[in-house]
Amino acid sequence: MLIVTVLLVTGTALVVGRALLSHRLLLGDHRVVPSGPAGIRPSDVSVVVPARNEGTRLPSLLSSLAAQDHRPGEVIVVDDGSDDDTVVVARAAGCQVVSTDGPPPGWTGKAWACHTGAQRAAGSVLLFLDADTVLAPAALEGLLSLHSELPGLLSVQPYHQPARGYEQLSAYCNVVPLLASGAFSSWTQVPPMAFGPCLVTSRSDYLRSGGHAAARSTIVDDVGLARAYASQGLPVRCALGGSAVQMRMYPQGLRQLVEGWTKNLAAGARFAGRRPAAAATVWLCAHWFVAVGTVLAVWSAATSPGGHPGGVGMAALGVVAWLAIAAQLRWLLHQVGSFRWWTWVLFPVTLTTFGLLFAGSCLLSLGVRQVRWRGRVVPVSGAAAQESG
Q: Phi first, then psi: what are they for 32, rounded to 5°?
């Protein structure tokens, strides 16, 4: 009973403390891509799509670009050594296709593809989109409108649309990086952060920062790009996609989901600011304490002869803390994706999944020192990495 009491009291205290920090930690300064007129004509925009074996996902993105209220000036699909029908799909949609045989030494696949596409682009504004993103009809104007307010590098984390049950398991993986990054908090002096699926920048700022060449060997090239902008005194701002920019990350099975998250989680954690990362860690600890403490308290109360008053009280405290966590997690998940009810009601399930994925990511990054993605082995180092996003 002593262990149960310590777990529940500590967990409940952390829940209360987390609530007091919520205006700083829990997406308190988040902004969403608007719908509205832009200060620049969409015809001046070059869309660059890095693609490696994206034949099944490109049609949705390219169709959404064709359905824009005002279309971009050009769409460039950079084929990063695909062995499926990526090139055929892109050409059938009327895109400009640039093919590469893979990155040169010292470059990741995605950084090289983005760099190559930017060199071919003619627009004064560059919009980098991952192949798994989809834009609403007025999204391009909304992105340009937001970029006119937030110049420099604008990074948008799309609204996640997990369709199958296993995709729902990544609930915490979607929330924790946003919290730990500090990108949406009111804390000042946090390290610059960006999210790679959707990036908007002027050509002049891109060239001034050094572009993807400045992040050529970094697995999390989006963070490397953000740091390159900041080093030149250029602002880096983040937004949530909402209904304007959406994505479905890992539709090809559980193995793809595991490879994707283990590639990114530990690498991204190294770039998080100390204060938001510490606050996110406290937030996660509260969940673990309450999950374990509540289960033990309820089990103890149910099995104790005559129902010990102290055991019943601790069980009630645990249930209240459980409901508080579930309610707050529900709000957070609704900001970032269409996650089902059980991902927050039964939060220990998705919490455990996050713990296993993060542990696996740390093992690969710190122990094995390589990860695997899109059929390529990615060395985890500052030197040549052969990865594609």
A: -120, 145
Separation between Cα atoms, residue 8 and residue 372, nearest integer Å = 39
Residue 159 phi/psi, 5° resolution? -75, 120
How far is it, in rounded angstroms, from Cα 255 to Cα 227? 31
**Does the predicted TM-score (pTM) go above 0.85?**
yes
Centre a 10 Å sphere on the Cβ of residue 258 and count the other Cβ atoms it contains.
20
Measure the CA–CA gap between 271 and 198, rounded to whole angstroms. Answer: 19
What amino acid occupies position 245?
V
Non-local CB neighbours of 163 within 8 Å, separated by 6+ positions: 248, 251
Q: Do residues 47 and 77 make contact, with C-beta atoms less than 8 angstroms apart?
A: no
| pLDDT tens for each residue of 134-146 | 999 999 999 999 9
Cβ within 8 Å of residue 334, ≥6 positions away: none
Helix ranges (H only) for 304-371 are 309-336, 342-345, 347-362
C-beta separation of 168 from 350 below 8 A = yes
Residues ≥6 apart with Cβ < 8 Å to 13: none
**Is residue 225 helix, strand or coil?**
helix
pLDDT tens digits, 73-132 = 999 999 998 888 999 999 999 999 999 887 888 888 899 999 999 999 999 999 999 999
Distance CA 17, CA 1 (A): 24
From 260, 40, 303, select the one nearest 148 (Cα to Cα): 40
Residue 99 β-bridge partners = 79
Q: Could you say which DSSP state residue 191 is in?
A: P
Under 8 Å CB-to-CB from 205, ≥6 apart: which residues?
151, 152, 153, 229, 234
- 202: Cβ contacts below 8 Å, ≥ 6 apart: 124, 125, 126, 151
